[in-house]
């Protein structure tokens, strides 16, 4: 059989070894499964179809898969629910998809230590629901929480609506179990909220978009559910006025749990009747024992700047106020295929960023819809393209490119929370600079010397 | 001169090159300066004296120093105020000390973006004071804040009293400028609170104890000063009862700004009169708009468990309640040389850890004084040794070793906030495990291929 081993191609040998060493239900090569696992919600379509999909159910499936792929130098694309918006989970010809969505057990939920240990395929909202039964919550809440997995959230260091007060995903990850490119299992971090032994591998893996290791379990911090919540909705004559108002909240020393900003085009897409209230809507939520007092302070700040301000502590009314935000993306999806950018700028530059985005949009005759997590300067400028088009129109690319350049010019970043994936790679070097970029490549090399983990993504 | 170049020793050549390339006031080789820069507050004394001290005043001094040291393979020990407790800044024979305490300018303080850009030698409390003038604060507050530098705080990922609510140093570092071993300057992170482009080099450098790069400036997050503060002090019949009470606060869903626990021996050292109130003192502070309501909730939890509970919103009275905590270390220093450990355990194991520490102390007939940041499970078991002794008594080492083993057995860590330095190196592999330890060494290699940066520390 030695003759076969040296003449067969690496992909064919890999499939043979995986068929031999994995339990029988793990490996899929049928074209429908391959096609379903070739792309993500970015809408990016790589060339060709992947070789196969491994449906991992336990850590050993991951170690077996990576050990063989490493030896045979076959690229591996780790994948959760495929809800990524930057193409980080796209898998083209010659690559092996490692699907972790079936590793979806909550291994431990400790109300005593306010932490959970979960497999990567657990749906984020489900963990939050399990925590709520103990008076706790998983604070990170990406808008995709009902669909996306913890593993994917960690891979992109996902943000969400509550970041200004509760931090991003990294701030809730205490430790990880991960499998290195060669199949070695490493444990990082710990079960304590503090700890400084060794370099921060937990933070390094968080946000690494599957290019450094494959996460097989995560120890996550849970937090007490807030004692109270108060919600405000304010309309403004212009988006800039709303952005300034959001900045005025920060200047008043209030850290809201969320501050979501919707521009006029988004309001019109959700419901033309909303647009009649103003050209921008700012929704603010304060939580904790001081929620009512903070909401009053926010109302005092907003009232002279807004056209209307409404406050409530009633959960059903709060949900009604937040519904415009929840309906924004579905509404834009009805108009076409939304290309959702996620630049972040220093908070004081939010109004300026919004003004410049409008100018860029006008220059390229490309409508841009903008939602912002206002309290942390994170903007989602959304370009809606015709879904019938095979490729993005040049004007859309140019608009996106100018928005990225704007973010960097204002001292911000290309991506606040979605990750680089494949879509933003061409701008990464501009943000990192050559020295940090080179250093990052050396780190990649230290983790993955053969470059098999999600090649062509992130860096 | 080529003959001289190949026959002179590397240290002598380095001193010649530094004398040539650095401004005249930067290089010191007099024995008094060398002795003053050979050790830190750990009390560890390395063999011999360092070669020289470079008093850096600007980034270029650091790049020049590292470029030559790298080429000549001379070890470099970066240093701030020398307040480290683990020996991370100790510098023995043959090493060059790179003193950053003179790079002490606040380069920018932006109330608009709630951030500061500072050089590494800025004293932590001075930054906090500068921020307070704008209604802001720098949240991390290591007990050494009045003496220690931001650079040293970042090097050890320093903790402090407010971590349970506001996080550790890493949670306030947005970006860094750092010089790599070969003299290359890299910028990491950004001025925004969110951002996921590239790997998290900011987090990786934070806590790396000067072994990966030398930090030359830091962009730090500032936060609004809290609207209100309420302070409680409660005495308990036993330390375990106080630890359980602190855990009951967490279970009640309150996240206090600080929760400091002092055991009976510490109280007796501060003032024998305090010891008459109980065998342990728990000081809790709540802050923010909900401070009074939270303090009431805390009082409700503590009252049935404590022997006495006292609450105040008056700043002077709060200061009086906190003074026992502030006076603890000076009081122990009057008894001898305190060896301050800083294990952390999952919060539910705090009482168990305290009980076990007492048993270890009894077994080795070595008194252990314990202070804890109770809300994050971070304990400071302190062994006081006779300052006249040349070396630590075996019983002290054995006591420390058993305390570290205990921390790991309870699912905790050797060091919650002080760093590994030289003192805890022999236990690092036990905590990290062989695979993560090997990976960390590969990362070190990717940053510092000749191993010149703070060799023999941290890993």
From TrEMBL, chains A, B:
InterPro entries in the record: FAD-bd_oxidored_4_C, FAD-bd_PCMH, FAD-bd_PCMH-like_sf, FAD-bd_PCMH_sub2, FAD-linked_Oxase-like_C, FAD-linked_OxidoTrans_Type4, Oxid_FAD_bind_N, Vanillyl_alc_oxidase_C-sub2
Source organism per UniProt: Streptomyces hyaluromycini
Keywords annotated in UniProt: FAD, Flavoprotein, Oxidoreductase
Domain FAD-binding PCMH-type, first and last residues per copy: 46-225
Protein name: FAD-linked oxidase C-terminal domain-containing protein
Cofactor names: FAD
